[in-house]
Every structure is written in C-alpha cells, then in structure tokens.
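Pipeline run #58 for the internal structure catalog. This entry was flagged by the ingest filter as a single-chain record with no existing model, so it goes straight to prediction. Upstream metadata was stripped on purpose; only the residue string is passed forward. Reviewer on rotation: M.T. Logging verbosity set to normal.
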Amino acid sequence: MFAGSVIALEPRATPTITNIYPFYGKHQQGIATPAQHHTYFMVLDLHTDDIQKIKAMFQLWTAYSANLTAGKNVRPYQQNAYLPPADTGESDSLNPYHLTLTFGVSPSFFEKLKIEHLKPAELNPLPHFPRDQLRQPYIDGDICIQACADDPQVAFHAVRNLVRAARANISMRWSQSGFNSFEGNETPRNLFGFKDGTGNPQGEALEDAVWYQGDNWLKNGSFLTVRRIQMHLETWDRTHLNGQEETFGRHRDSGAPLGQQEEFQAVDLEQKNANGEKIIPEISHLHLAKKVGHNILRRSFSYASGIDPKTGQFDAGLLFISFQKHPQQFIDIQNSLGNIDKMNEYITHIGSGLFACFAGVTDENDYLGKALFDQC
C-alpha cells in the first residue's frame, strides 16, 4: 500500500439515467429546469486579460460540465498513482442527482478583457436600491457558476473541480450554498414559512420573460440577478400570524393571495373588504411586486451560514436568484418595493450581482460562450 505500489482508481459506475438533465441544448440548464433541492453558487474574479486563456478555460469547463452532469468524473483517472487524481472524487459513489451547471459573466468581465465593445447594452451594474446595505464580500466579481442538484455534495463537487482546473486564471470571490425542501411539484417554503415562487411564469409567459432575443452573441441566453438577503428570523418569530400574512400579501398555510382560497388563484390588487379597505395591503410584498406588471423567473434557495458574530443571531436568509430577458424587469420590481415594502422590517439585502448567462451548448463542437469568443 505504500512505497513502490501503483493502484489505479476505478471509474465511476454508470449513473441512473432518470437522474440526468441533458447538458446540450438551446439554453443552459439550471434556468427553466425544474428546481432542485440544493445549490452551490460561486462568484469568481479574473486574474488575466489574455482572452485566449479565458477562451480555453471555458472550453475546458464545457468538457468538464458535460461529464459532470452525465455522472462522470471530469476526466478519467490516470494509471500513475504518483500524480494527483484527475477528479477530487467525493462524488464517485453518487449519481448526478439532476446536476445542472449555469455560467454567467458580469460587466467587469468585459472591462478586464478589454472587450467592452462586445458587452450587451443591457448589461450594467445594478443600481443602488433603497435599503441596500451591501457588504464587500458579497458584491462584484467577473464570472458566476450556479451548480444545482438534488444532493449538496454533488453540487459542491462540480464547482470545486471547475475552480481547481482554472486556478491559474481565476480566484474565488464569494460563494453560498443553499437548500430547498419540497415534495413533488409543491412550491418550496422560505425560512419565514411562506411559499416562495408561486407567481413564476409558465409556458409561453416563461419563454417571453426569460430568454434574451437581441441580435448579438447573448441570444437565447438570459440575465441572472443574485441577491443575498439576510432574514432577521428572531424578529419575524415574534410577529403574529396576521402581521406575517399582511407583510407577504398571502396566506401562510395555502400560499393563496389574501382574500382567496387557492395558491394559484389570480391576484386581485383592487379587491376590498366590507369596510372598503384593500384586502391585499398596498405596502405588502405581493402588491408592490405585482403592480409593476413584469414577469421574472425566481429560482431562489434558502441558506443557513451559522451565527452572525455581531448579533449572536442566525446568519440565515434567502439566496435570491432570478432570470429575465432584460435586467430592467428586476430593477423595476425592486424599485417598486423601495422603502415602503413591509418586508423591509425583517430583511436586509447584503449581496448583489448581475450576470449575462450564455446560450446553451448545442453539441460537442460547441462550447460555453463560443458566440462571444468568436468575435474576439
């Protein structure tokens, strides 16, 4: 077992096909894909302005991602036991658990690579919103990787191996693991106990809301907005049920809009009670978000990151992620929430980012960002 021995590692077993989302397609997976139970979200900084190195990095990430999402190692294990294994191995005994990998680039990506002329006009840093208390560790960055799976170790393993392969050109800026628990097709609940994502568009409405159709390299991609939202759970837990429901504008048990019985019933912002008062309060989260009239696809996850050393309370909340064909859809909603959203009493936005997510990789001759890099 020690000096002089050479032991080859065995390749992973063939995974169960029902646990695989196909990597190749018109759009990247992890956007309109049915939500998984776990995410590992990573933001990276570039440390080179050599466009050819970054092109090669995305080509390598494409090959690795195709293997990982199919339940394979990033590369086959080599026979020489005196070299580090080709794959870190923590998923060797696991199937892919519906792993998806989604890649995006920020406005600063184009600045660092000196290709500002290729940056979509819509891709600009998000403005400062009312009540933002952003913290330096959770802002900026040049590239994001969203790994989602029904097992947390599978999601982490994927990001770990992608970062490992690119250490010469990138460094880790911030990351966040997240979780969702739900049965079947139920809408998951956030840490306030309310259903999160009920109003997501479906079918043609989703297609229209999410996929970018501009005449440039981003066509069939999407814009990803990420917000790290700290929830003040201890304050929330002292709030009576009526107050909680008036904050959201929905019933906690069913997820139905106030004044309705079923989760997916139409929202009527003008409905009034016998006293002539609006049933869904005008300062409720639902009212302020809905009145703008925009659709976005919410794909958020809860997080719990221990204890806040400054307060001694939970460091927990929502890793808010949304996809939209234009950042203005999110910006208008967030500005509507503004200073008057009753939810502001219980949350603080501490992280923020905007990324342009490439179109999908169509086949083995394609790679992530090819339409962009072909113009460089």
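catalog note: The chain has a mean pLDDT of 95.
catalog note: The beta strands are 38-46, 100-105, 143-149, 170-179, 222-231, 297-298, 301-307, 314-324, 347-357.
status: ready for reviewer M.T.
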